[in-house]
Give the backbone structure.
Amino acid sequence: MTSTDMRDEEARAILKRNDKGGYTIPTSGLYPYQWNWDSAFAAVGFAEFDIDRAWAEIETLFSGQWDNGMVPHILFHVPDEGYFPNHDVWQGTGPIPSSGISQPPVAATMARMVLEKDTTVGRDRVAELYPKMVAWHRWFMDWRLDQGAVCVTHPWEAGRDNAPDWDEAMAAITPEGVGDYTRRDTTHVDSSMRPTKYDYDRYIWLVQRGARLGWDEATMLQNTPFRVADPTMTFILLRATRDLIVIGEILGADVRELQGWAETLQAGAQTLWNPALGCFDSRDVVGGSWSGSISNASFLCWYAGIDHPDMRARLAEVLALCKYGVPSLTPDDTRFDGKRYWRGPVWGMMNLMIGTGLSEMGLAQGDALRRSTADLIAEHGFAEYFDPRDGSPAGGSTFTWTAAVWLAWASPTNQGA
C-alpha cells in the first residue's frame, strides 16, 4: 500500500468515525454537533466512496431549515454538555434545536459536485433539495445585503470567527450583562489556538441579543451593532447561486430569479474592493471602516468567477511568505498569529475553494495550491488548521472537512482528475 493509499484510507476512516448517522460532526469533543458548511464539505468527501451517504448529509442539514428559509450554522441533534453555547442559550426557533444564525452557503456548490459524480442517483435527491436551497439563498438576499454585498451579523456567521475583519465592529460592542459562563472549547484545544475571552464576551452578547429579539430579522436590523459586508459570504453565495442555476436548469426550473440574484451579487462584490489595500476586503457597514485585511477570504474572488490583476499580484506576495497554501491573514500583517484560529492559520477547505477557482479560470496557481495542500496533509495529518509557515497542526484533530478535502481534491489519487 502506498503512502497515498494509506492517507486515502485514513481520510475515509475519519469520515466514518465522525458519522453520527445521517450527519457528521467536525471532530469529537470540540465540535459535537452538525455544523453547516462543515457538513456540506463532508458530503463531497463521502461522494468519493458512498454517494447515498453524501446525499443524506445534505438532506439532514436541510431538515433543520427554518420557516423563513434560513439554514442554521449548528444543529443540536443530540444534547451534549461538552459544548457552549448550547441550544438553551441560542433559543433557536427551527424544527430542530439550533443556533439562530447561518453560515457560508457552500451547500449548492457541494450538491452540484455530488450530483456530477452520479447524475442517475442524484437527480431525484437534488430535486427534493432544490426548492430548499432556493429558499435559503432568498433569505440571504432578503436579509443580509448591503449594496449587493453579503453581510454577517455575528462573526460565527462568516465561519471566520476571530478574523481581524471584525475587530472594529467588535470593539464598538460593550458586552454588558453577559454574565458568567464556562467555555468548553479550551478544555479540548490549547487556548493559544482559540479566540480570546474578549472575543467570546462579544460573541455571547450578540447571541443573547438575538435570542432576546426572538431571532426576528427585521427587529434585529434595527440599531444593530454588528453588520459587516464580508468577502467570504459574498463570493461563496455568488458561486453557489450560479451552481444552483445549473441545478435548476438540469431540473427544468425557471431560474430567472436566481440569475437576477447573481447579477446583484456580482455588482455587490465590487463594493468590497479596498483601493488603498489593493485587495478585496471586509467593510464595517455600521462603523464605515475597512478591515485592512488580506485574508484567504479575499482570494475567494476566483471561486466566484471574478478575476483582478491586482489580486494575482497579492496572491503571489502572500504565497511567497508561506510554505503551505493561503493563510487566513497575510504573515506580514502585525495582527498575524500562525496558530490562532482565523488570525493566520491555513485551512484545507479554503485552499480547495481558492484553488478550484484559480484552476477554473485557467490560472496555474490552482494546481500549485492543490499540490501544496496535498503535501501539507500528507506531512502533517488531518488537523483542523495548520501554521502556514511550517505546517505544524493546530486546533482539533481527525477533522472531517480536512479529510473530505483530501479525498475530493488534494489526494494524488485525484490529481489531474
Observations:
- The beta strands are 34-35, 74-75, 145-146, 149-152, 228-229, 273-274, 279-280, 283-284, 385-386, 393-394.
- The chain has 15 helices and ten strands.
- The two ends are 21 Å apart (CA to CA).
